[in-house]
Amino acid sequence: MPTPPPADSRLCQPVELIAELNLDTVLAVAAHPDDIDFGSAATIAALTEAGVDVALCLLTTGDAGGFDTDRNAEETSRIRRAEQEAAASVVGISEVIVLDERDGCVQPTYELVGELVRVMRQTQPQAVLSFHPERAWDRLQKAHPDHLATGEAVVRAVYPYVENPFAYPELAAAGLPAFKVQHLLLMGSPAERVNLRVDVTGYEDRKLSALGRHFSQHRDADRMREFVTEQLRTVHGSGGYAEEFHHVVVNDPQTISGF
Fold first, then answer.
1. Contact 206/257 with Cβ under 8 angstroms?
2. How many structural domains comprise the chain?
3. What is the rounded CA–CA span in Å between residue 233 and residue 239?
4. Does the UniProt entry include the keyword Zinc (predicted)?
5. Are the CB atoms for 128 and 180 separated by under 8 Å?
6. CATH code where residue 115 lies
7. d(CA 253, CA 246)
8. Does 4 reside within a domain?
9. Does 52 fall in a domain?
10. What is the pLDDT of residues 3-29, one digit of tens each?
11. Residue 30 carries which DSSP code?
């Protein structure tokens, strides 16, 4: 069963989130195709409809996912990449960037962190949306090892490396200087870390439509839709639909940075 929201988590409208975080560009980072659709597709749909540019960086093509044991990894990779492109178009994602990590083997290595720093410096987001690096014991399926490793790599990239002018000097030499990410929006959080719920009422069907594009991943599509809808309602808590995050302020006018 979905976990009710913490009493001290706040519920906000997408327009309020955009204004508060001063958003015009967001980078979403996921381990596999469909991750972002399960975790935050409705929020993304609301943001893009309001004019925020959202790009998606996939670390893997999900070649180890699905239920068809007769299909080889190369074919699975091709199918799942196409499924993610289709899902991205449903919620208004402007670009899908694909790295070459192996499904099931993601680790927060120096090399992967550097690739994420490169993508962040290219896209210049005010907020990065990705997985929480802490394991969620309330529903272990949220805490796939690739998700945890992705979250850790993203957090390391956001601080200190993307803003450290001495880190990954080859990027600065290639015209990608250091800059500061302002916010992290982390999905799949342990329940006690959730401090933000985004009211996505009216966007729930866009989320379900995006999830429906991942045909290769659903043994029982109807049950998936029921579970996701129930989860959105539980997170909202007052009759609507919401998605939940751990919002971390990385840099604001009061931040004192150090390397």
1. no
2. 1
3. 6
4. yes
5. no
6. 3.40.50.10320
7. 20
8. no
9. yes
10. 776 767 999 999 999 999 999 999 999
11. E
